[in-house]
Amino acid sequence: MKYKYSKSHVRNFWNTHGMTYDWYGVSEEAEGTAEFFDRIDKVMWNAHRFAAQEGIPFGKYIPFSDIKDKKVLEIGCGMGSHAQLLALHGAEVTGVDLTEKAIRNTKKRFEILKERYPNMENINKCKFLQSDAEDLPFESGTFDFVWSWGVIHHSPDTKKIVSEIHRVLKKDGHTSGMVYHRNSIVYYVHYMFLRGVLMGKLLKHNQRELADRYSDGWQHGGCPKAEHFSKNEWQKIMQERGFSLKKPIAAGNVKEIYPPHTSRLLQAIIPSFIPNTVLKFFGWFLIWNMAKKK
Predict the structure, then answer these.
(1) Torsion-angle region of residue 265: left (phi > 0), alpha (psi -120 to 50) or beta?
(2) For residue 176, what are the β-bridge partners?
(3) Is-contact 79 22, C-beta < 8 A?
């Protein structure tokens, strides 16, 4: 399938608007400082509380007890939040990203990390390089675990990246991560109904273009591509590329369900099991958890 935007459009957007969670330009910390990274992590972990386990961010989906001294690849390292989390649990992390901005900042983060944890030898082995995940610069069978959260759906050829993940994993290696869920409240209510119908955006854009426009960075024109997948579609994509995978999991933030500016009030009134149950079926995040290389 041909896309409106090329890979250079994707690279340029994220190089200009890195995932710093300050889409409105309100960040006060200087880029590349410890305070800058600490703020990003705080926002990240708070927005993904559903993924935590026993207080550890993303503990439901990252096998922290098994990655010590293992070779771990992160596809789309962004500002390095997940890479730091993996490294602090003993992994030898390699991070790749399409943009120079992400690699520059993640390297700065790890310089700070080395000063904070001088006795963690694995941190010195971590490395980060600008690279296209559709053509990873690693030998086959290099990594024990591959992680990618909310990244590969921005690629012009997401399926090729899945094939590359399979190639670079060791025999019986695993991968976990997230792409966007098409059968979600965000897709059908936020994109198609609120923007598309009520605001008349479907008169100018088709469904795919609306999802691109409003998934990330809509304040700046929207990211060039953000493909959304159904559970069955994503399971088939991974199985056809050599993974053993149960049906993907839907999840999300309760803010997806409530009207703008009402989430705090409604969360105090409505029992938490209700939105959590809804998100298991219609959450924006579609998670593949510990898919095994056959």
Answers:
(1) alpha
(2) 147
(3) no
- Pair of tokens at residue 284: 């924006």
- Can you spell out the DSSP letters for 161-212? HHHHHHHHEEEEEEEEEEEEESSSHIIIIIIIIIIIIIT-GGGT--HHHHHH
Please report where in the chains the tokens 């960075």 appear, as a residue: 217
Residue pointed to by tokens 């386990």: 53
Alpha-carbon distance 267 to 255, whole Å?
Answer: 9
Quote the CA–CA distance of 71 and 41 in Å, as a whole number: 23
Structure tokens at 125: 């082995």
CA-to-CA dists, residue 240 to 30, 140, 215, 234, 293, angstroms:
45, 18, 27, 10, 11
pLDDT-derived band at 2 (thresholds 50, 70, 90) equals very low
CA dist., res. 205 & res. 212, Å (int): 10
Query: Domains in the chain, start-ordered, CATH in brackets?
Result: 7-293 (3.40.50.150)
Average pLDDT, the chain: 92
- Where do we find the tokens 């053993």? 244
Are the CB atoms for 279 and 250 separated by under 8 Å? yes
Residue 130 has pLDDT above 70, yes or no: yes
107, burial (CB in 10 Å: exposed 0-12, middle 13-18, buried 19+): middle
**For residue 77, which of 61, 98, 57 has the smallest C-alpha distance?**
98
